[in-house]
Batch of 4 targets.
Target 1
Amino acid sequence: MSASDVNALELVDVGRRFGALAAVSNVDLTVAQGERRALLGANGAGKSTLFNLIAGDFPATDGSISLLGRDLSGVPARERTRMGLRRTYQNSSLFAQLTVADNLFIALRGVRPGRFSLRRPHRRGDEMQRVVALAERVGMGGWLDHRVADLSHGQQRQLELGMALVGEPQVLLLDEPAAGLSPAERTHLLALIVGLPPSLTVVLIEHDLDIALRAADRVTVMHNGRLLVEGTPGEIRANQQVRDIYLGSQGN
Amino acid sequence: MRVCAGRTAAWLALAVVVAFYPLVVPGFWTYQIGAQSLLFGVIALSLNLLAGYGGMVSLAQMAIAGAAGYATAYFGVNSTDLGIALPWPLTVLTAIALGTLFGAVVGAISVRTRGIYCLMITLAIAVGFSLFARQNYSVFNGFNGFAGVRAPAVAGIDFNEPVPFYYLTLGVAAVALGWLYHFSRTPFGMALQGIRDNPRRMRTLGFDVIRLRIAAFALSGLIAAAGGVLFVWYNGRISPGAIDVQPTIDILIISVVGGMASPLGAFVGAVAFVLLQNFAIDLISPDRFNTLIGLAFLVVVLFSPEGLTGIAQRLMRGLRGAVRAERPPGDRETSTEEATARRIS
């Protein structure tokens, strides 16, 4: 089996219960390498919980998850990140008191050796250049010195994406990256996502159907913690069940 | 640019004041006020590292300093027949190594807790250690502890004399303070600040949060131990009373009053504390000292959660704002490139 035959993500019968509540149950999901997959579903459908299970924020109570062919049972979140998994959060999860450059620097350090280093990075060193390059890649090149708390919501979402692109990511989990953005900011962010290297596998949770269907090759719809249907954007648009549940009667 | 220059000037002025201070004040002010403030400042600085950068408030810092103090007595010169007298550099190294190790152990025990639970666990360790020292006679010499502990004389300079001892504590304090400012910009220091703000995020960024926290405790143990060596040299003696609940809480008070978020706050708090401790007696009866300290603590915490340094910073910012408002607008902003260059340097 060559490396590209290995699926980026493979979830078999994955479930997560919180006491009596089954937030996610019986999820089988396979995402090929380089695929762009959108995950749709109403609030409470279990999309973010599924991301948390894949990223290792908390363990699955049932089933198994593999990342690039490696079983993730018992693998802590930090190790999954070092294996090439990156994620963003639905609500920006940044270090608000630090600057943009510091946030990117911390993210970069997380996937590189020397996390305990007591030496200051050189001002023109390789790492600082990477930080600048990352910031420019997500359109934050002019904001390196600004405190994150002073940024607009849209800029924070861009930075969040930048932090997920550090090192050599293989699989990117984007949790509603466009939430709360203005139409112009959405278009900008969508361009950033569409412009990501084709080798990168992207799973995208998105409420904005337009963004989801434009950015994805395939779409998976969840409902009440279970998979409802999977297909191409065209198939999903045409699916009556999806229209009823997700779009309501207004969907067209 | 102007802000930077102003800050450099302020630091220079501070350096000149503390460097020439013993030359213009009497011995009491050099030793009891100056040196004592500096050594308490070093111990409180170890808490500022943990609390300010790591968000972990530990009450074990005086216990760690005390352990290093006991080690200095045990592995050095003292007036009991206990202990092994090593040459002084080895005494100091052993004391600091043991303090660092103690810090790491405290970290390993308390690192999974936060907030009030971290406080309680570290308090329990501090009280436990103090009780153990009181009851153990084979190593800690029980209730009496050790007396006759002396700082070394090096190259004809006797560090038991007030002025040399002042400069010794000043040197240690300056190195520790400068190192902590450096530390805050190192990968480890930045990671620690990230953990303070969002540990869950740090995990998904690839960090081992538990190990980083333990390492931070070890580093803070190292600083506390350096303060502990100075502490025992200053007093010439150490006993369980020196690491009791009261001194344990004093360190927390020093940190909070000075300002936990700023390394310099440890020293500001220590000066305030030592001044109050020495001169409150002139104002009130000695057994009301704790009431006064308590009131001072309340007032500072009530008006500025960032302590005295917070008040100073706010005043400075207000002043700067007033100066800026009088300047033409073009002068106010630095360009983005300039700001970026400044950040990266």
Target 2
Amino acid sequence: MDEYILRTNKLTKKYTNDFALEKVNISIKKGEIYGFIGKNGAGKSTMLRLITGLAFPTSGSIELFGNDNRNELINAQKRMGAIIENPALFPNMSAYENLEVHRLQKGIPGSVCIQETLELVGLSNTGKKKAKNFSLGMKQRLGLAIALLSDPEFLILDEPTNGLDPMGIVELRELIKKLNREKGLTVLISSHILSELHLLATSFGIIHKGKLLEELTAKELDEKCRQHLRIKVDDPIMGATVLEQNLSTTDFEVMQDGTLKLYKYLDDVRNVSRALTNHGLVIEHLSQNGDSLESYFSKLVGGHKE
Amino acid sequence: MTNLIRAEMFKLQRNKTFWVLLLTIIVLSTLLHYLIIIDWWQINETSFDTAGLSELNALSIFTVPLFFNLIVSTLAGFFISIEFSQSGVIKNQVISGNKRSTIFMAKSFIFSLGAIVVTILIPLVTAIILVILTGHGDIIDSSNLMYLGRAYGLFTLQFLGYTAIIMLLSIITDDSGKTIIISILFTIVMYAVEKLSKPPLIEMVYENSIFQQFSEVFKYTMTKGEIIKSMLIGVVTIIIVTLCGVFYFNRKEIK
């Protein structure tokens, strides 16, 4: 049976007359990297604030590590690390001192973990430099170090690449993948930069105007976004046989409505068309389909490409 | 709780505002006491005069709410409120897996401790050291020590009630500037209530508040009943205001 790290049940947050979140159900399994996708203002940060206990739901419930009452949730937060919106730092303290405050707060014994975490995020050489003099990227790294200090099982990152340069983004991605692979860290990461999440996440939740539109695995998303030829013929079974025998491919699907989705021969449509018509099939429709993640997202939320 | 208190202590030790206030009060207290001891400046008719401790007259300045509020509210603004607004570090604390009530209590404890050190301990210690160094040490005999102990013991109790109010205010406002301004307005209002004629109900409330006690506790003689009343007012204020603070912080949404 799958072990769930986080489950929400009809989670709702209402501000006066507006719903910031409306009956959102998400499930995150142990070991997943869950990409939370949505436009700015879609409700991503609200969701993360509710999960971390910074705000309170109007209705619905949150289950974290199998615990769902308030006191148990607070205790479960000890197994979690998070950066919500901006990294929260003491500007007049060094990176080491910032981590020392959090070490004391969480009651982590010994200070070895501080140097180890600083090395992990590439801030071990900052010495006495104060956090207020850090670049935006360094601040993000320090925020990440704070979140990772207690060796959490579940990491929540809200727009973590804000302010990072391209190399920083790659390094962050590799670090998250490494922690996920080596320590089994479960990650919930929100972003509106879809290409970035696509390279990292193993499952996705797409949120729009406070409502969860879809939850799917990376594999399912890839399938939906994969480029293909959409073919509609008068005899789909015969059509499938022609593809198999004459075009020597099994890389196609027969959909419930009889449409064939062919993932090969994208640059050789004429050959496909000829093979089908040569066997007396009537082609009712033939087109090239498939979305980029961005256009898939745009179609889903009913807006324009971002 | 111990972890949180250690973390708050660590933060207070690295808080610039705390050190600036501490040094300012050391210099100011030393200067004022010195000026009074050498008779360059005189303050008359203070409670310390009545007790025969006129060399300590400058202490009376540090026990006036209009003055000590400047210290307490500045510390509250730049030690408590700033964590909600500018740095936002309160988020990390709330996420840390500690109960909000425990977080509030730890903050309140260290904030009050810092305020007591700057506002009560430093002026008193500098005054006593200066009095001894200038050869007036004989004024601090056992009966005066008893008086100072009783007066400052009760004053500290009332002061803790006051820091609890400012702590609550700093959490409500979320902003250091607002904390300072509103607390100044609050003390001005309380000062006006003290000086102006007021309806019987307000007079009754004021007379049983810590604001009346700030001056009452320095009376040279206090009856047992007055001491118990003063203690009750201080303790009840601390408990009620702290409970209000915990209640509010438990329901506060962190931005």
Target 3
Amino acid sequence: MGLLILFFVWIAIPAVCLAPPLPTRFSPVVEETNSESSMALPSQEGQEAREDEEIRKPVDEKVVRATLAAAHTPAKHGETSGESWIAQRTMVEDYCGWGWIKKDKDSWRQARWVALEGTRGTCPLPHTFLPRPEDDKNYQYRFFGTFAPYRAYEPQADVWVDVFILKGFMSLGPAKEEIRRPPPAQASSGVNRFAERGANVR
Amino acid sequence: MRLLPILCGLSLLGLPLQAHDVLLISGGPALRSFEKYKKASHDKYWGNFIDSALTRAEELKKDLKAGDKIVWLVFRPSYTRRTAEDQTDYLKIIEERGAKLGLSPTYFDNKTQLFTLLRRDGSKEKPKICRLEYFGHSNKKCWMFDYSNRVDGGGLEPLVVHVDDLEKISGSSFTSDAECVSYGCHSGEEFSQRWRMIVGRPMVGAVGKTDYSDGGMPKLSNGKDGSWVY
């Protein structure tokens, strides 16, 4: 009898200790079925979400971009086919114009300062989508349209600037750096040379 | 010689020998979408150049010579665009305000049309101009009917009269004693002198800014040592 008990203990203890764990409530149950539509358990979803969170973790740059007011600008608007230019919004206080515009292959040194004219019913100026006109300062766009056959008069510097008629645009996001080149000015009269304009501020 | 007694007779009867036109020109307002957030924001009120011209018309009417008439020229495109922006029919309001003084606006859409309207030969259809007054945006070199309306902070070339354009205005369209005044800013600093040299008639203009903010006739801005000069 004693031998039988020892034999039983010798057999039973390893069987209990080395047995695979019993399935718990949260452990995945792999069922071999022929069905391809196996329902995922909540535990699986949670695991994937955690992995996604790690993958989509917001980068500082993305957070900054998302909080820019210019993020309200539509990604694409108007007629976006045909010849295009790269444009960077540049604001100069009391100076006529919108910013700089260049062809893809050109450098910003070759860019032209333009006054921007929207096309009624087709494409308004990009800043009109934003709370304030300066909200897209140093923002870049791909512009579609043509140069106007006429120029615009810049009253501060008494110069004529090119006019670009905007037919459509695509937002390219914030520029890497500000363009610090001054807009065109006559040699005798720089920007704000005679900045005192009409006081009819009523 | 035969006409002399007739002319003398007419002058004795007090009948005018020839009627003339008094021209008042109203430039256009800026769009608020361009000006709203600027430090020096222009044209919060759309009708600065309308009210001032009409106030002046009322004054001039009192001293108008028999036969002379006031012609009110209004730059239409800026009011049309401001109408669209404010959702208010400003052209209708302009016409109503003019009608109260018996004036009907003559619209022009660009400087070429203005030059045509200024071309006079002294005939009954095109009487000479005995007075011209301008109300609108300007700097020392330019009348800007269009300002911050089509493009931000400036005016389009066909919609402004630069001193280089003055050759297109003939001095023969004016009477020999015609008086001209520009109520825009800085006109007295160069525009007036160039007008006198090219058009041949003196023009009073402002040194410094003019201020329309009190309504009615503009005045020189305070504290800038401004003055009216020929």
Target 4
Amino acid sequence: MEGLAEELLAELNCETVFTIHLGSIDIPIAESTVITWVVMAAILLLSIFLTSNLKVHDISRKQLFAETVVIKLENFVADMIGEEGRAYVPYLCAVILYIGFANLIGLFGVKPPTKDLNVTAALALMSIILVQYAGIHKKGVKGWLKSFKEPMAIVTPINILEVFIKPLSLCMRLFGNVLGAFVIMELIKILVPVAIPVPFSFYFDIFDGLIQAYVFVFLTSLYIKESMEE
Amino acid sequence: MLRLDINLVFTIINLLIIYFIVAKFLFKPIKNILAKRQEEIDKQYADAKAAENQAMELKKQYEDSVKSIADEKAAAVNEARTKAGEEYDRIVADAKTEADKLMDNAKKLAHMEQEKSIRQAQEQIADLVVEATAKVVASGQGSAADRELYNQFLAKTGEQQ
């Protein structure tokens, strides 16, 4: 039993793959960062492969697939954020692709990067910066500051708190879900390594992973939309 | 498990790079090709519209020319008819004049002939009277001779008639 706990803890630990020594400063590069590079490379190669040899007429099945994916993804995000937030659609598409890839990479037996708090915190930080930027961009600094007194002055502290609560909840939701799924999957894999993990993997790696990507982008676009409302 | 360090910054940089990759290598080419296709479709629509307009114009021209031909035809027919009518009237009038002239001539001729024959008859009658008188005067033989002369005169006159 003790062996099992140790094994599990080892799996849960976010290892430092290597450390860069810059003079006296050590820069640890975490596993999640390296896996993110792999995801980036995969997205880059897939994008280049899908968009190579594009034609106006007589399109190949590959191009049809690429066009369908891009249009569907864009409409999917644009429907959530509304017509006003059109400019933020590409970023949200990038995020949904990244989280989707990152969560699905667990299928290959790699630790998903979203299991690392650094990654989800970075995502949430970017989201809240984008949300506040959208508000300032739409209403101006004055309007943005005024929006903290909406709907009445007494809720101002809560509104200020929300600036921190929103990204925290985004960060922890994604982290908790992926970590939880990962823990359960590791437990199952340790207990019964054959056959049984397959259906669970379908749920925890594919379904839950994609749902979390959707939820993250959905909530971010909801916040952006909210911040742009007069 | 719960660590927050410099890797957060790395992740943010990675995210920005992913955003760049997706925007530049996936969305941009697809958008470009879609825009190109849309442009081509718009162009085709415009071309079709232009062709339709041209066809309509040609049709109008054709209809106009057909109409003008019909007008010209009607005008020509009218003109011909007027001319023919004039010609007809003229011919009839000429004929009438000619006929009147002929009639007049004929009448005059007939009149002259008549007068001439009357005059001849008168002359012959006068001659006969002269002759008869001479005969009567020459014979002078009673009533029998008178009757004889009268009968001769009648017979002569009857022969002459």
